[in-house]
């Protein structure tokens, strides 16, 4: 249920913390299982009827005291998804029976008994240790460490003299263990502005009617934070004609749309089908999608585009630094880069792009962003700045960095190896220092670590581009990984997942954490002295540099030392 506001029982309160976070796009640890491209496939995430989600809980007991009524109500809520909270409403009276909206939010708490106490006014207060909130749009918003959900309920006696709840907040409280049974994550598939790739946003919905909820959410569009970086092929006003997406026993889902969809151009019709099919492939036992308008088949053309959610493979070679000079690592062997003689010996933070013959750059002396020479061209200085941020290169070849000029607001820069430059609009840069920046493989999002008011936070922001891929703005960021502390570096490892080097309340040593956007994060084994990370596809591609100059790579569930005397490894991006 919607708590008053989650708070910490310490002087530093987190009033409004959850409201500030608009949910993000992403997965639990199942990111690696997402289809990378191709037609609709099945992901069996629905539980069969009569499964453990449908629990029996009794209604109010005669003569129960207010605290017992509230506790019984909370128990009935936990089992309420099978009967649309019918038993839970038996604990209510008066207008609350009809006015209470359980679907407005789900407050997830640790799986221990809620604290239920009478207040001085006779009301009953419920308090639980917060984990996360799922809002009515299905967006998972992690609560900070030590946050608490509070809810107050008023009770009165009914005509039979029995206590009933007559006033309560909307929403529900749900233990973490029950949440994993009652809810399923799904991935809404939006489009990059050039229609080349899918951009995923994670949502959570009750397993009952999962296909309907996912389709409604897709047609309603992306979250506000993501909207500037993506598009959808659905014309404005496109909705389900009836609020239902029935899925037959043969796995065929019927999606009947309103006539607004007829405004879509031919190409957009095929793209919209691809969006719906890919979304429903992650939303239950759907094997085929039939589109209709007013119960008549909706023609979207004979061929569908194959859109990847995480383009490009991990290359066999990568860049690194040894004693200030540029190295190339291939097949496990580190050698001097062919162009190293033309560069300085105070190099750091190399970066390389995607595909064949990608651009590569390196920072020289901390203040110059320089192209890495090849056999055809010498090095050139692209940016002269101050304390340049370690660069990131997107799929369009734009090289991103930030210059921290003295007595000036930081300037975010995107520049091509040819020298074509864009000064990126991002007014929020003046609010704090950016410590790390990585552009996602689809080019629509930036992952960043920013220090604001003395505290480092992990954030994501949408990249606004034209249809040719030219960037113009980094939209307002939203915080993720609220339960991590002191983050220092990050990298993308999947379509909705970051790897973040940080500490946490559960892991005080600095470790790599996999952080799905809009889902719980998890820690990998600690690499002692870790200072920097880079990655390609999946957490098995991670490279971790230590302060002693050793690069570790994944070795099954652990790490192994792969290179000594190297630092700043750079995989594409």
From TrEMBL:
Entry keywords, A to Z? Signal
Among InterPro entries, the record links this protein to:
GerMN, LpqB_C, LpqB_N
Q: Which Pfam families match?
A: Germane, Gmad1, LpqB_N
What protein name applies here?
Answer: Sporulation and spore germination protein
GerMN domain mapped to chain residues: 211-302
**Signal sequence, start to end:** 1-32
Q: So which domain of life are we looking at?
A: Bacteria
């Amino acid at each position: 249920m919607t708590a008053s506001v989650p708070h910490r029982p310490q002087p530093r309160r987190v009033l409004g913390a959850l409201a500030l976070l608009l949910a993000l796009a992403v997965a639990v640890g199942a990111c690696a299982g997402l289809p990378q491209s191709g037609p609709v496939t099945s992901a069996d995430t629905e539980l069969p009827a009569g499964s453990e989600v449908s629990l029996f809980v009794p209604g109010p007991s005669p003569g129960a005291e207010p605290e017992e009524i509230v506790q019984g109500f909370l128990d009935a809520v936990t089992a309420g998804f099978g009967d649309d909270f019918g038993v839970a409403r038996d604990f209510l009276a008066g207008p609350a029976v009809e006015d209470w909206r359980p679907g407005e939010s789900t407050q997830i708490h640790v799986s221990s008994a809620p604290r239920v106490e009478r207040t001085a006014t006779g009301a009953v207060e419920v308090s639980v240790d917060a984990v996360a909130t799922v809002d009515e749009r299905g967006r998972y918003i992690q609560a900070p460490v030590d946050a608490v959900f509070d809810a107050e309920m008023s009770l009165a006696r009914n005509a039979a003299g029995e206590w009933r709840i007559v006033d309560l907040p909307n929403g529900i409280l749900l233990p973490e263990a029950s949440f994993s049974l009652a809810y399923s994550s799904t991935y809404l598939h939006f489009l990059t502005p050039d229609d080349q790739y899918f951009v995923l946003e994670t949502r959570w919905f009750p397993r009952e009617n999962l296909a309907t909820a996912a389709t409604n959410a897709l047609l309603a569009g992306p979250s506000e934070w993501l909207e500037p970086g993506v598009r959808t092929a659905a014309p404005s006003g496109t909705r389900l004609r009836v609020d239902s997406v029935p899925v037959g026993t043969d796995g065929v889902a019927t999606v009947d749309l309103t006539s607004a969809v007829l405004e879509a151009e031919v190409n957009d019709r095929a793209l919209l089908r691809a969006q719906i099919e890919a979304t429903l492939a992650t939303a239950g036992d759907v094997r085929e999608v039939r589109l209709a308008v007013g119960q008549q088949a909706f023609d979207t053309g004979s061929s569908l585009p194959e859109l990847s959610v995480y383009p490009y493979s991990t290359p066999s070679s990568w860049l690194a630094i040894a004693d200030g000079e540029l190295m190339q690592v291939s097949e496990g062997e580190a050698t001097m880069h062919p162009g190293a003689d033309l560069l300085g010996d105070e190099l750091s933070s190399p970066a390389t792009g995607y595909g064949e013959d990608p651009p590569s750059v390196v920072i020289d002396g901390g203040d110059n962003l320089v192209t890495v020479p090849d056999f055809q061209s010498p090095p050139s200085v692209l940016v002269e700045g101050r304390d340049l941020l370690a660069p990131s290169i997107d799929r369009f070849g734009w090289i991103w960095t930030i210059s921290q000029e003295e007595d000036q607001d930081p300037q975010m820069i995107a520049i091509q190896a040819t020298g074509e430059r864009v000064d990126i609009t991002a007014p929020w840069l003046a609010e704090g220092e950016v410590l790390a920046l990585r552009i996602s493989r689809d080019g629509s999002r930036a992952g960043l670590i920013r220090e604001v008011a003395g505290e480092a936070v992990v954030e994501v922001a949408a990249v606004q581009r034209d249809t040719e891929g030219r960037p113009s703005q980094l939209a307002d960021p939203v915080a993720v990984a609220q339960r991590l502390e002191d983050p220092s570096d990050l990298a993308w490892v999947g379509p909705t997942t970051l790897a973040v080097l940080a500490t946490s309340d559960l892991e005080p040593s600095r470790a790599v954490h996999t952080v799905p956007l809009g889902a719980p994060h998890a820690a990998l084994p600690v690499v002692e002295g870790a200072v920097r990370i880079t990655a390609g596809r999946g957490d098995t591609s991670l490279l971790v540099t230590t302060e002693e100059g050793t690069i570790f790579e994944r070795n099954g569930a652990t790490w192994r030392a792969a290179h000594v005397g190297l630092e700043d490894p750079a995989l594409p991006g």
